[in-house]
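Let's study a protein:

===
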Amino acid sequence: MPRLAALLISLYLLAGCATPSSKSDQLNSTLESYEATIRWGNFENATAFVDPDTLKDHPLTGIDLQRYQQVRVTGYTAQPPHPAGNNEISQMVEISLVNNNTQAARSVLDRQRWRYDEQRKRWLLVTGLPDITQH
């Protein structure tokens, strides 16, 4: 019985120590999933990563969706994320695009800020979808 108690206490302590790592793992997984969604040009599905308050303040319009449909993503180069506050990170991403109509290539810089939402237990993109109208 004492061995079982010691084992359970050890497992409990290990689980407590794993929390920061799992949040970090979750961040990496979220960033990779978001990158894949953007690389495939699926901007409408990418809204699932955006903070609901951000979407409420800046809803995605039909014109926005049309703009996203006029480009093809050809590259996504992310710099490593760095802390930007309590439960927040910043990341700079260069997104390469080709206009489907003109075949003109260009790049935009996406300055992302992600926040860990304790209630939802997930990372949310606070800065919204990339602004592809940059010149």
Helices lie at 2-39, 43-46, 52-57, 62-69. Residues 1-20 have pLDDT under 50 and may be disordered.
